[in-house]
Structures are given as structure tokens and as C-alpha cells.
Amino acid sequence: VTENRTDLEDLHLYATPREQRFRRFASLEFEGQLYMTPYDFIQAVTNDEPKRAKKWRSLSKQELNQILMETPPVWKGSSKLFRNLNEKGVISYTEYLFLLCILTKPHAGFRIAFNMFDTDGNEMVDKKEFLVLQEIFRKKNEKRERKGDEEKRAMLRLQLYGYHTSTNSVLKTEGEDLVPRSYWDTLRRSTSQALFSDLAERADDITSSLSDTTLLVHFFGKKGKAELNFEDFYRFMDNLQTEVLEIEFLSYSNGMNTISEEDFAHILLRYTNVENTSSYLENMRCRIPEEKGITFDEFRSFFQFLNNLEDFTIAMQMYNFASRSIGQDEFKRAVYVATGVKLSPHLVNTVFKIFDVDRDDQLSYKEFIGIMKDRLNRGFRGYKPIQRYTTFKSCVRKELYSR
Question: Transmembrane stretches, by residue range (predicted)?
């Protein structure tokens, strides 16, 4: 254990919400830097709190080398990679941020991500190019750091990045309020500047000063000399999205091929700011009296659609601006036109039964989009337990009232 509980809580005061979450779920420490295991990462994106109290276990150099020696190459990746690695892996803070970016991006965005790393345009990404993201995320965090004790903030940087950072800005901007809203935007904005700044030169220093991680060995081999092509990069990102969705689905399916419509609603509303979730659940429960179930293919297709929410929002706005109501057919067509994803009639009907609270068979555009944007922020909002209303009277009363 690298520090006592008081120190842990003290440094938490100087951490951003993302940093706080990483520190809560991380379980390993090597030479002052904190790491997650693959198991920790899965827990961080599927649970509100760690299942067990975390004490950072110090790794020896020998233990770290053994973990990295057992890391499979990228061509052996699968949608069970993180589950198979379990506790035998190390993930740094910047890699944690990168993996979070992947979980919320459409497949079409994978090519954009790859091209952002491929700064020399040779259709391959090497270790040095990939490590540029270390500097990009670090600079974004410096702009967001909370004011306070410089010594404590320096300790926090050491925990998260493994080295002390200077206060000099690497990325030059003309204004103070030009920081993009998301880490994905930061990548898209900043990697294009990499060839015209000292970011790439800084990556040389980073490479020599930081320890290898499971992700670096997986992508670039044990010697760090391999290069990553787009097909392997795409497969990794797709596998990660699938793996997290499988874990969520299986946590509710209890070994069956489907989850209930109510469980589907629970998952959708889980990481949102909805105050009265019971009204959505009660509404759906009354209007879908016979359970048919949601398959994993339906479940996965819906979250693929959510990752395309920005494009879908534009399509929905066109209906909205034209003062057209959004029925199930219009919704299904807007999803397909904007995202290329085909949702099954049963899945669309279930979504409408959840969100059509006034029961006019039309979707509330603003409410639906707002709630789904919350859902995309998985892991960064507090989990609010959803109240369960199981009385038959409440369903009957609501049904009579709607008439």
C-alpha cells in the first residue's frame, strides 16, 4: 500500500472527476504511478463503485515484466481479451481515457482515430506516434487542474503520469477558453498539430521515461518495434465495445439468451440524471404486460446507434423543425438514415414504451436525446438506484388515468 487513507482523500480534493474515478478503481502501483488491471477497467465502466475496497498493491519490476511477457499480440485479440487477462495487465491513466473514448464512438470514427495517430501518413501507427496521446491528454488535464497546493498537484501528476510535468504549455492557443469539451475532441484537434509542435519530440522523452503497459505490448510487441495497421486497430476497438456490452448484458441475462424489457430500461437509465426513473419503468411495465425479451444482437445494435447519436440528433431536428411528430416508423427510419443501424420493430416498440410517458405513441425528442446523452457519459455520473414498483394497483391506476 503506497499511502494511507488520509493521504488518499487529501489528494482526491485536487483531482478532476475522471482522475478521482481512476484512482478509486486502480489497484496497482509501480514506481509511484498508479495502474488499473483489465479487471479494474471493466469494473470502472460497468459499476458505480469497486466491488472491494481498493488498496494499491506495489508491483516489483520482476512482476511487471512477467505480466507483460504474458500479454498476447494484437492479432490474438478477441472480445474476451480483458476478461481473459483479468488481473494480469496494467493500464495507465491516459490509456484509460483513450479506452473510454473508444466505448462511445461509432465504427466510422475508428478510421478517424487511426488517422489521427498516423501522423506520417504511412497507414501504420508506431509506438512513438501512439504515445503522443500521452502528452495531449496531459496538457488537457493541466488546463483543468484545480487550484491549490502545488506540491499536492505535483504528487497527483506523478501518480497519473509517472513523471513530474512542467507548467509550460506544449500546445499553443490564442485564447484561454479554447479547450475542447471532450477527450475525443482533444485528440481530433491536437494530433493534427503534432507534426508542427514539440509534441512528437516530447514523445521521445516519454518513451524513455515510462514503463511499458499491457496496451503498448499488445499493440507494438514486447520490443516496441512492431507497427499497428488499421485492420488490427479496428478489430481491437470493435472487440472492446462488444466485450463491455456482453458483460452488461450477461449481468442481467443470468445465462439466458435474452434480458427482460424492464432490465433493458434499467440499463438505459442507469447512468443518467433522470430524477423520477420510476415513472419510465412503471410506464413500460404497464404497456408491455407480456415479456418477450431483448436479444444481445438487439441490445448491441441499440448501443451502436447511441454511439452515432450526434448524427441521429441532426435527423431528429429536421423532423422537429418541420413540426412533425416522431412515431415509431419515423424513428426507425431516422436511425437507419443517420447511422446505418437497423433496429428491430420490437426494440423500437420497447424504446417507445419506455420514453413515451404521455402515451400518445410519439417520442419526446428533447427528453430522449437528453437522457441518451447522459447515458453516453457512463462512468462519470453517479449511479442512482432505480426504484422498483411492483404493485398491480399502480399499473391499473396509471392505465385508467391515461384513458
Answer: none
What SS3 string covers the chain? CCCCHHHHHHHHCCCCHHHHHHHHHCCEEECCEEEECHHHHHHHHHCCCCCCCCCCEECCHHHHHHHHHCCCCHHHCCCCHHHHHCCCCCECHHHHHHHHHHHCCCCHHHHHHHHHHCCCCCCEECHHHHHHHHHHHHHHHHHHCCCCCHHHHHHHHHHHHCCCCCCCCCCCCCCCCCCCCCHHHHHHHHHHHHHHCCHHHHHHHHHHHCCCCHHHHHHHCCCCCCCEEHHHHHHHHHHHHHHHHHHHHHHHHCCCCEECHHHHHHHHHCCCCCCCHHHHHHHHHHHCCCCCCEEHHHHHHHHHHHCCHHHHHHHHHHHHHCCCCCCHHHHHHHHHHHHCCCCCHHHHHHHHHHHCCCCCCCCCHHHHHHHHHHHHCCCCCCCCCCCCCCCHHHHHHHHHHHC
What is the value of pTM for the model shown? 0.80
What's the chain's average pLDDT?
A: 77
pLDDT tens string 366-382: 677 778 877 776 645 44
The mean pLDDT value for 88-105 works out to 90
